[in-house]
């Protein structure tokens, strides 16, 4: 029984880590896109 509980906990932790990593990646991508967009807008304003 203890082994089953340990396995369940390990799986839950692994899933939580995977979700956290994907969220972090999504945030990083969002920030990168936002920065790229801001740079393009600034360039257009400067060149404009």
Can you tell me about this structure?
The protein is mainly α and about 50 residues long. The chain has a domain at about 20-48. Helices cover about 95% and strands about 0% of the residues. It contains one helix and no strands. It has one helix at about 1-45. The radius of gyration is 21 Å and the shape is rod-shaped. The N and C termini lie far apart (about 70 Å). The mean pLDDT is about 95. Keywords: Membrane, Transmembrane, Transmembrane helix. InterPro entries: Hexapep_transf_CS. GO terms for molecular function: transferase activity.
Which quaternary structure do these chains form?
Answer: single chain
What is the global morphology? Answer: rod-shaped
Helix content: over 70%
Any low-confidence stretches, pLDDT <50, length ≥5?
Answer: none
Query: What is the distance, rounded to the nearest whole angstrom, between the alpha carbons of the first and last residues?
Result: 70 Å
Helix vs. strand class: mainly alpha
Order of helices and strands: H
What's the pLDDT, averaged over the residues?
96
Major pleated sheet? none
Distinct helical segment count: 1
Which strand-content bin applies to the residues? Answer: under 5%
């Amino acid at each position: 029984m203890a082994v089953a509980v340990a396995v369940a906990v390990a799986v839950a932790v692994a899933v939580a880590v995977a979700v956290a990593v994907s969220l972090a990646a999504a945030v990083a991508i969002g920030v990168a896109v936002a920065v790229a967009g801001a740079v393009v807008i600034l360039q257009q304003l400067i060149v404009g």
